[in-house]
């Protein structure tokens, strides 16, 4: 399962008079992550800290953190742990802190930085990358209504249709379900629909909490 944030996002909250601003961004390289961190630091140069964490790779192969002046292990690592726990890939999180005069202690800092990232992710929403295969169908006009009902029941959307001497239908199906759907089509329509596999694509599907 490959999951990332639905959209770049900024979330702000106040904890014991300190402002915690979490910036989330989808990234595709370490250079992009470093540029994003530098950009936030430049924008919030008056802030006391701009702590960061990011993961890259389908299995989070690359993981980086920075406490940016906070006590070691109280900011970047707790932020990273949230990304790891939620299995989020290719995302950089930067939490900007404007100190409000009340010290939080190590435990308080860990909860604040982890919570800031967690709340931002919940607000941004998550998507999962799904590999799909195009299925090309050829059928007689008399079968079209039945095919539409079949596809609705199987929660498959038609991406394109052509009405010529017969009907050509294109739809995309999750890769692991293609053979199962093709067998079901053959069985349901007694082999009267011709079909073949087309191109593959990767789509983003919202992860429902």
UniProtKB/TrEMBL annotation:
A cellular-component GO term for this protein = cytoplasm
Pfam families xrefs: DUF1949 (PF09186), Impact_N (PF01205)
Top-level taxon: Bacteria
Q: UPF0029 domain: which residues?
A: 137-192
InterPro entries xref list: EFG_III/V, Impact, Impact_N, Impact_N_sf, Impact_YigZ-like, Ribosomal_Su5_D2-typ_SF, UPF0029_Impact_C, UPF0029_Impact_CS
Q: Which GO terms describe its biological process?
A: regulation of translational initiation
Where would I find the Impact N-terminal domain in this sequence? 16-121
Instruction: List the NCBIfam families hit by this protein, alphabetically.
Output: IMPACT_YIGZ (TIGR00257)
- Family designation: Belongs to the IMPACT family.
Q: What is this protein called?
A: YigZ family protein
